[in-house]
Design a protein that fits this description.
With about 170 residues, the chain is an alpha+beta fold. The chain has four helices and seven strands. The protein is globular and about 45 Å long. The structure holds coenzyme A.
């Protein structure tokens, strides 16, 4: 029975192992070289939030939120991403990871979550739309990998019912 919980240092090797085939064998990720466990530890440490779906100590999947962009006015916006081990797909884990992640991000005071999806990707589009994301943009031929140009679509999901007025200084 899988459990969703915050990622810790003991999970980074498993997170790197889940991510590696999507980097190596697909255009889902635009990276060329799978990050090492040390590099993944740095990324998890720098993320706003990272969750893992685990069965015992085995990492089956993960979802992380990172700042959308660095400049100050963007600080209520986050990018989210989710990856599962191939054999762990279609068991509700993507949904479980995102339900917890989006709730945590809302509780953190964040306002909008964004996801960039290399197209086509029926599973990712299906998950994001099932979680309330809607498509807001499509960047044509924005990346070249594995011998072809690829479009990336952007999906957005409000985390709040109405836009807050941030405290002064914003
Ligand atoms: C995208 C991904 C995370 C989905 O996770 P998952 O655990 O398989 O999805 P779930 O079982 O939680 O499904 C939740 C919903 O997503 C949608 N969905 C999931 N897989 C789908 C598929 N292959 N085709 C269409 N819709 C799909 C469905 O609406 C589903 O609801 P349902 O089960 O009631 O039909 C998983 O396929 C994956 O890791 N893919 C490779 C990495 C990737 O593309 N990550 C996203 C990068 S942008």
């Amino acid at each position: 029975m899988a459990e969703v919980r915050p990622a810790g240092p003991a999970d980074v090797r498993g997170i790197a192992a889940v991510y590696a085939p999507w980097v190596r064998d697909t255009v889902v990720s635009f990276e060329d070289v799978p990050p090492s466990a040390d590099e993944m530890a740095a990324r998890v440490g720098a993320a706003l939030r990272c969750l893992v779906a685990v069965d015992g100590r085995e990492v089956l999947g993960y979802a992380c939120a990172t700042p959308h962009r660095a400049r100050a006015a963007y600080r209520w916006s986050v990018d989210v991403a989710v990856y599962l081990a191939p054999q762990a797909r279609r068991r509700g884990l993507g949904r479980a990871l995102y339900e917890r992640l989006l709730t945590d991000l809302r509780d953190d005071g964040l306002v909008t979550a964004y996801a960039g999806i290399t197209l086509p990707n029926a599973a990712s589009v299906g998950l994001h739309e099932a979680m309330g994301f809607t498509q807001v943009a499509r960047f044509p031929h924005v990346g070249f990998k594995h011998g072809a140009w690829h479009d990336v679509g952007w999906w957005a999901r409000p985390l709040v019912d109405r836009l807050p007025v941030p405290p002064s200084g914003g």
